[in-house]
Predict the structure.
Amino acid sequence: MSELVDTFGRAHHDLRVSLTDRCSLRCTYCMPADFADWIPGPELLTTDELMLVLEVATGLGIDGVRLTGGEPLLRPDIVEIVRMINDLPSPPKISVTTNALKLAQLAGPLRDAGLERVNVSLDTLDRDRFKAMTFRDRFNDVLAGIAAAQAAGLAPVKVNSVLMRGVNDDEAPALLQRALDQGWRLRFIEQMPLDAGGQWLRSTMVSADEIFEQLSALYTLTPVPSRGSAPAEEFYVDGGPATVGIIASVTRPFCAACDRLRLTADGQLRNCLFARDELDLRIALRDESLSPDQVRAEVERRLRLVVKDKLPGHGINDLNFIAPTRPMSAIGG
Ligand code: SAM
Ligand code: SF4
């Protein structure tokens, strides 16, 4: 049972932890190619600080932890972090969202350390497009990373795809066919206004309905019942058992069932991807006037506070919506 229940009755079970804001790609919907506004090293939570937060959070009912970023596999002690999370008194389920560039090297060690699941981002099956979308010629490394994850038993690998108008919006059926052939579990995510360059436009966004129509031209999609707090609307493909997911974050928000909190790499708690405010945990973790027990108590108090302050929804569809100042890469996707 989670003790982190907000004023709308939503119990929080899931913590998204950003391990770094740095990344080895520059996906245009996430980070501008010349981005340089990095979090200074001393502001990043140390692994000990992170583990203290996770110990408190799991004690309050957080039972799922997703490691993300930026690119979480750039964190030098990522394998050790997974092992330490598994050794917590109430170990949560651990997953990682990654661009897979380092997965060929790390899938086995991560699995041995207790990682259960991995989500990989891949938006195109064309090497030149990949290069244009990410500013790096690393398409083959992603495929090698996915294969290594499957070979290591991190299966089924979930693959996340964002479609952008005029860039890769013709690739939904091909991505699904590749997923069916390779045993990936594919999910399309509507592009959200979280790019540091502020380029997102609702008028050009590829919507969930459009993706559904594109896929339906070639496949029979039947809704999978019981979505729970999962963000994706899942569909059986041609009767199943394979499924495809569509995450309609913008056009059909799932805030009413949201059970997530987020911790940025510099120790700021967020109760929503689109929150305008953050609550500083780092300041409590580094307060030398507090004893270790008092630090724990303060972290707990702040976790409860950020949950209490959670709004009913992200408000993307409100006329006065203002996007958060940090890009997705710094918030942690
Ligand atoms: N670097 C890792 C990766 O790409 O998987 C983890 C971090 S990334 C921010 C997490 C997820 O957020 C990725 O699946 C990415 O496609 C998605 N994402 C980033 N910016 C987005 C945006 N503006 N709209 C929708 N999804 C976005
Ligand atoms: Fe990096 Fe992931 Fe953002 Fe792409 S989506 S720039 S891989 S953090």
Summary: The longest helix spans residues 292-308. The radius of gyration is 19 Å. The longest strand covers residues 93-98.
